[in-house]
Structures are given as C-alpha cells and as structure tokens.
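FOLDING PROBLEM:
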Amino acid sequence: MKSTRNPPDVAAYQPVGGLGTGKFAIILAVLIVALFPGALFAGKTFVFRDFGIFTYPNASFLHDSFWRGEMPLWNPFNNCGIPFLAQWNMAALYPLSLLYVVLPVGLGLNWFVLDHLFIAGMGMYWLARKWTNHHFGAALAAVAFTFNGMTLNCVMWTSNLAGLAWMPWVVLVVEQAWLLGGRRIALAALMGAMQMLTGAAEIIVFTWFIIFCLFGLRLTADGSAWLRTVMRTLAVVGIVTLLSAAQLLPFLDLLSHSIRDNSYSTDLWSIPLWGWANLILPLYHCYPARLGVFFQPGQDWTSSYYLGAGSLNLALLALILSPKPRQWVLGGIAIIGFWLALGNPGLLYGTLHKVLPALSLMQFPVKFVILATFIIPLLAAIAVAEIKSRPGAKNHPHSFGLILGAMMLTLALIGGLLWQAHAQPFPYQQWPALWKNGLWRSLFFLLFAGTILLYTKTSTVRRQTILEWLLLMVVWADFATHVPWQNPMVDASVYDPGLSARRFEAAPKLGESRAMLLKATGDFVAWHELGDPQNDFLGYRCALIGDCNLLDGIPLADGFYAVLIREQYGLFEKFYLAATNQILAPGFADFLAISQISDPKKFLAWQERPSHLPFYSIGARPEYIGLSKMPKLLLDPNFNPRNTVYLPLEASGLNITNPAQATAHATHFTAQREEFEVDADAPAWLVLSQTYYHPWAAYVNGQPVKIWRANYAYQGIPIPPGKSQVRLVYQDRLFQCGAVAAAITLVGCLIVLRPRGSGRRGIPEA
C-alpha cells in the first residue's frame, strides 16, 4: 500500500505571521517603484557605466536583429566581427529578453530591471518561507536580497541581475525535486534553464555550488535515500543542459577559441583586507568616482555590497539560536565567499587557484561576495523564525539579551571605524560624507534593533503586524540611502539614433569602413567627468566608448565584450597599445578599413583617413609563412595590404603565387550574409578584414570553398580566374543542433507539466 505520509520538508502547515504572499507581493512592487519612479513615470532610463556603454547598445542590437528577422549569431560592427549569441552574457536566448526585443528598447529594459527585482524578491520570499515557515522572516529576507548594495549594483547588467533573480527559485525547486521527483524534476529543470540562459556564469556556478552543498548535507542526514536523490539531481542537471544547449554549445565553442585560459585570471578588483567594514559602514575608506558614485580603491566592479547591519546581526543570531547543520553550512559558505573575495592578499584565493586552474576563467574575485549576498538574508529569516516562530509561542529565552548585546557591539564598531577614519584619514576620503553615512547607518540600525526588541515582546497580532511593516520600511530605507545613488537615471533621449553619426563628416558604414578610438582619447574620456550624468554619457557615446557604436550602426575596430577571439584580440591589442596618439602601423590600419580615428588634440573630434581599404580587397601577392611570424610583419610601418597578403604555409598548395589584376564588388553585405561579384585575370585571393571564425562558410560559383586565415586573424578565399559569384554565410551548426535538442526537451517538459484534472500544480504552498 502506498504511503500517504508527506516528505519531511513539505508537510502541511500554516505559515506564521500576517504578511501573506499577496500582501507581500504588493509591498514589494510598491517598494521597487518607489526606488525607481523615473523608470515608469518620467521617461527616464539607466545610464551609469556598463548599462550605457554595454547593456543598452547590445540590447539595441538584439532588438534590431529581431525586427530584421535575423538570429543574432554574429555582430559585424565590433572587433572586426565577433560572435554575438555565443557571448552568453548577451542573454540572446533568455525568454524575458523579449521585453526589450519586442517593446522599444528603453521601455523594455526599464521593465526588465523592475520585473527582475520583483522576481528576485518573490523568489527569496518563497525560499525563506519554505525553510522557516514564517511569513515575516521570509518578507524580511526578500527585502534584504532585493535592495542590498550588490543587487542594486547589478542593475547595470541584464545577465547578472537576471541570474541573481532566479538564484533563490532554482535552489527552491531543485530541493523540491529531490523530495518529490516526477513533475518537480521538470519544473526544476525549467527554472534552472531560465537562469542558465541569463548568461550570468559566475552566479550560475555559485547557485549550483550552494545546491550541491545542500545536496551533500541531505545525503548525510538521510543516507537511505541517496540513490534516489542522486538520480533526481542528475536528471535535473541533464535536462537543464539540454534546454540550454542552443546557448551553451556556441558558448563553449567560442570559449575554446578565446583568450580565456588557465593563465587569464588575476586578482584584479578584489576586496581590500579592510573591506569587511563596508558591510556595516558602506563609505568607509571609499572615494567618489565618476558622477559621485563611491568605490573602494582598486575595486571597481561593484559600488557596494552593503547587506545592512540588521541583516548581519540576525544572520549571526541564527547561528547561535539555531545551530543546525544547514545554518552552519550556509554560514561557512558566506564566510568562505567573502574570504575568497579578498583575492591573493587573503591567501585562500591564491591557494584555490592553484588547486582549480579553471578558476582563471572567472574575472574579479569580488564576485565571490555574491555568496554572502544570497545567504545572509536567508539566515536573517531563520533568526526571525527562531525568535518568534508562532503567535503566542514563547520566544527564545536568550534572544532579547543577544539582540541587545549585538546592537551595542555594532554601534561601538561603527563608532570605532569613524574615529579611526577621522584620526587617520584615508587618501581621497570624503569625511563629511563618511560621518553622515555612519550617523544614518547607526540611526537606521538603532531603529531596526529597537523594533526587533519590541517584536520579541509583542504577542498581539495587531501590534506585531505594525512592527513587521515598520521593520520592512526601515530595511528598505536603509538600503535606499546607504550610499549616494548607485544608478543615476537620465532622459531616455540620450539613446536616440543618429547622435554619434553627426560627429563625422562621412560616418563609416558596414562593408565600407570602420572608426577607431585612439588610446589617448579613450583614456581622456574615461578619466574626465563631463558634468551631469546625461552629458557624461553623451561624451562616452560620441567617443564611441565600449559598444556605443551599435546605437548608430557604425562599424568600430574595437569593442567591449567578455569573450574575445584569441588571434584577433592579440593582434589588435598590440596595434591599439602602439597607437596611443597616432597610427604607427598605417598599412595595417588601411587593411582594417579604418577611415576615421579620434583626434587626440580635439575632444570628441574625428580625423579622416582617406587611404583606407574597404572591408575587402583582391589581387595582392600572397606570401606563405608561419602564423607566428605574421603579427610582426603586419604591424611593420612598411606593410602594404594592397600589395601583400600573408597566408599560412598550408595554403601554398593551392598554387596561387602571383599578384592578379582583379576587381571585387559587394552586392550584399549584412551581419551574416555577404555576396560579391569578382573578376580576376588569374587565380587570386579575396581578403576580408573580418575576424576568422570557423562557422563562416564560403561558396564560389555555388561550390563550397575553404576559408583560410589571411593576415593572421582574418579571412582569405581563393578565387579562380574569370568572373565569379562569391557568397559567405555564417552557419553555426552547434547552435542549430542545440536548438533542436532544446526544442525536443522543452516539449517533453511541457507534456510532463501539462495540467491534470485535479491536484496541486507548480510550486506547493510553502
């Protein structure tokens, strides 16, 4: 006879507290809108740092590709051509990217940010409520997770914000898959695939690291179910992989051809050893960087990882009042995460790097703080549940004294940090901003701790509800004011098309020419603030910093991407660093079709280079040499791409040895399809200053022809004598295979999850 006993973690219960799911969802939505009213009501949009120069331009490219009816596999506008979808952090296949693909980009991105803050909060609410059986503890965890410094910093990246938003959901549904199997496995796989498609690689790894730690804990606690748990976990992982195959296969392929290897990572942008102080005093030893946003010296990835003194104290209290294995495992992960974020000075990061060389694929040790960002709110919820688990129940006998002691110690610590900062001023320290920051943090913490103390003594439902609402408002206000504004907003008109093109007498066009920003100009723009946020971004945009060129469809020799093709990046970096104030390798610049370079003497002005070639040329004399010798020859001032093209030794077998009288004309030139009419009096090489990457396929007179490496990192196609029709097509077979696998797997999951006549569906009441 089948047992009707519920699994131990999903037994029926009535959650404690007055803040039910519906009420909290309304509160959370109101708090999000209150923090970003301009995004909905004033025609404002985000602009700070990577949002303006990376997120918005690439969202615009994705949007435009969709409305052209193209799958965004290749970006021809940056880095002489670079895989786009394969970048992974573009989130090109992430379903909720449709918000800015279908809607106007600015409106869609605003909704994307607000929606994912809401998804993050509700996910943490459900997870904490499942673990604690306490409505208010879950609500407190959700507010702390949604509005802490790290989450608000991630607003500038669609991938990282979305990855964080799905983090609690994935942990929640994978745990349910262990317990219940069946349909919960399909649900867990769908949630896991949603996070996987966001492209937040490190956050995805952190999510599954936490899951596997909890997995080990479960096997330790219930060894009799180890086989079932292992099989269910493997099933979830396998289905997630298949659902994400269209994204993962192109990414892994690009990664194998990229600059990222075991020697790639450094401890750049790690937390300083004193960085623990910023957990309770966010401006300690920080300085105002661009637009008055504060950063730690030597760490520019996040402007804050403030978690709130109240949340930290409750998290520590959870370890004291409820010293269960899960709490200690989570606490240990949070501590180790912060320790690793210290980079090499903390010693642990360097040791782990030696043991796990693959760690080099990740940049910036500060990202390990995300583990604490996720765990501290959960521990805070556990503490609240332990302090006051049910109406009328006795509180933990030591909770009042522990909270009072922690309050006094925290206030003393904030005071000590302020005294030390005043007695020994840090370089670039802003003392007026620091002491005010310390005063406000102290006041918010006093209000928080005092309210918690009252909460431990309150037994009436009405007073308890009032205190719960007050605590949520205090936590939100603390986060909303803990640093000067992290995400400056400006009028959405700064992204209007055509603004950059007006700076040129003849703007570069796809298939014809490119622009190039000299290093001296880039450094000047990066280090000189242009007043208010709107003008500052317009300066970035007119200088074509990052990927701003995508907003106007201007081809650029450079770009701002996470995964770059090894040969193209290595060669261009040498060229770029040498061209600080002027082009020192004019022949290579001509080959790259650079028609405009920034003027180092006139801010935001451009100089014409009439000697440039178009994107393609034909008829140069081939020289067959080893690839390793090519970079030096290409960067030689005497290199002339009209006369010479360098090809690998293997290509000499084609017996094309002499220059040819030939012409080439582009009849069709788009992102993933290029067509030429060619006329040559002898066998010749058609050479394109387009990055060599293997998914490109060439057809000459309808017959497939191998594309060779030309000039080290670009494309060369052998052409027979006479008139020929040449066609190049980007064909990513791995994407196609992955798409088929994902579609079949998705259909299978939907069949498993199809509604049935009766019974509970989706996530069970927690």
Q: What stands out?
A: The mean pLDDT is 89. The chain has three domains: 23-480, 498-608, 616-734. The chain is about 50% helix and 10% strand.
